[in-house]
# Entry
Amino acid sequence: MSDKRDPDGPQYDWLYSGQRRKPHDVDPDETRMIPRQQGDDDTEATGPVSDASEHTAVLDVTPPGAAAGPPSAASGNPPSFGSAPPPADERAANRPASFGGTYAAPQAGSRYASPSPQPPSGHGPPQQPPGASRQPPPRAPRRRSRRRWWLRGILILVLAWVVFLVAVPIWTLQSITKVDADPGGNRPADTPGTTYLLVGSDSRAGLSQQQRQGLGTGQAAGQRTDTIIMLHVPDGSGPTLLLSIPRDSYVDIPGHSKGKINAAYAYGGADLLVQTVEQATNVHIDDYIEVGFTAFVDIVDAVGGIQVCPRTSINDPKAGNLKLQKGCQEVDGTTALGYSRSRAFPLGDITRAEHQREVISAVGKKAASWQTIVLPWRYLQVNRAAADTLQVGDNVGPIDLAKFAWAMAHTSGADAKRCVVPYSDLGASTPAGTAVIWDQAKADAVFKAIRDDNTASATCSATGQ
# Structure
C-alpha cells in the first residue's frame, strides 16, 4: 500500500530548518537544535550565528519511483550542515545533510542517500589532511639493543686484540737478557741505515747431557760463535744485505794479536766481538742480537717448522746425526739446527754459512707471517721463545727489535742480497791453525757500500767468489 501522505504538506515543516513556523504552529514535543554561542571553536565568522543554520537537518527519504532532482545551482553540491536552507522545490530533489555529516544526492532508483566524500565541517573525529604521510611504527627497542651489543662486543674484541699485540712484545723485551755489547773507545763513525750484528753462540752452558746428545753439540767447553752475520737495512731504496763472516776468518783481535774471529767472543764476550768486527770492517755496529742453541730450536718450533732446500743429500753424524734428502722439505727445530751447523761439504764453512742464511730467512718469514699475528697461541710461543733465549745489547729497545724482526722477514725475497765476505784462501795455514783469508780489495768494496748505505752497489756472492 503506497504512502498517500504529502511530504511537502505543512504538517512536515518542522522537519526542515529552512522555514520557521508561527509560534502557534510549534509542537512542544518536536526536536530542536541548541543554538551555538559566539566564540565556539567551530564558529568561522565573528558575528552571531543565524538561527536558520542551527536546526537539525533530517535526511529525506525519497518515495519509491520518485526521480532525484538536480543538485543546487548555487553550489553544485548537496547542502551541508550549517549552510542556508535551499528553496522548497530543491529540498524535494536533494535533501540536506543530517547529524553533522554531508551526504550526496540519492541516485535514481535508490531509496537512501549515501555519504559524500566531502568531510564534515567542524564536527566528528579529527581527520588526517589529504596527502599527509603516515609515520612508520617505531622499531622494536630490543632489536636495536641487540645490535648495539653486537657492535660493543666486536669493539671490545678488537681493543683486547690490539692490547694483546702490544703487551706481549713489551713483556718479551723486559724478559730478554741484556748484555753490554758497547766496546767503547775509538769506534767507526755512525753511518746511514741500521747495521745489526747477529750472532749464533755455540755455548753448551745450561744444556743437559740428554740435550747435548740430542742436538749433537758435543762436550766442548767455553763458548764460541758458530754464526756471525752483518745485517744492514738501508734508509734508502737499496736491498737489505745479509753478509756472512766466516767464523774462521783470520783477523786482528784487540788485545790478543791475530786469530780466528770467533775466538774474540771466547776471549771477551759480546763487546770484544763487536770491537773486533768493527775494526776489521770499519763499519759501525748499531745493534747486537745473540741466539743460543736451544733458542734456535725453540724459535723454529714456535713458528711451526721451516722449509729448507739442500742441494745435495746430507748425512753428517757430527751435526746431530743429520740425514736429509736433496730438495725442499719441511723440518723441525732440531733438524734445522743440524742443517745450519753441518760442515760436511766441499766448501765447509762457506756452505755452512749459506745454510745459516737460508734458515734465518725462513724463520724470519714464518715469524712475520699473518698466521703468527692471527693465531694467539703461535704469537705467544714466538715471543716466549725469544724471551727465554735471546740476548740483546743494552741499547736495543722495542722499536729496534721490531725493526730487526721486520728486516729478518724480508731477507728471503728478491729485494735482498745474501752473500759472504769475499775471500782468497779457505785453508790458509796460520799460527791459529787453518783459517780463512779475505780478499781484502773485494771485501773493502762491500764494506764501503754498507758505510755509504748503498747496498745496491755491493758485489758479493753466496760462495764468496
